[in-house]
Write a structure and sequence with these properties.
By secondary structure, this protein is mainly alpha-helical. The chain has 2 helices and no strands.
Length: about 110
């Protein structure tokens, strides 16, 4: 039993050293593998995005065509509703822009001496 304990105590630092050396040897290989995987997957990602765009484009064209086929009063109503929804947002944007530009205008007037 004492011999096993001494053997374990002697082998433990060697085992740790072996694991450390293995990790140091494998780390650059792991980084290289990840880089190669990323380089291999990038064209696949681009291809997937291109295919998605090609699949969605006909649907977009179909939606535009269906919108154009709507009877004139419905199209006019849709535009009116869109304008009514966007008008408050436009007013808010103008108000915020005015509030942001007002201090600059005051500063400009103070510096110009008017």
């Amino acid at each position: 039993m004492l011999a096993c304990l001494l053997l374990a105590l002697l082998l433990f630092p060697l085992l740790l050293l072996a694991c450390l050396l293995l990790a140091l040897l494998l780390f650059p290989l792991l980084l290289l593998a990840r880089l190669l995987l990323a380089l291999l997957l990038f064209p696949l990602l681009l291809l997937a995005c291109l295919l998605l765009a090609l699949l969605l484009f006909p649907l977009l064209l179909l939606a535009c065509l269906l919108l154009a086929l709507l009877p004139f009063p419905l199209l006019l109503l849709a535009c009116l509703l869109l304008a009514l929804l966007l008008f408050p947002l436009l007013l808010l944007a103008c108000l915020l822009l005015a509030l942001l530009l007002f201090p600059l205008l005051l500063l400009l007037l103070l510096l110009s001496g008017l």
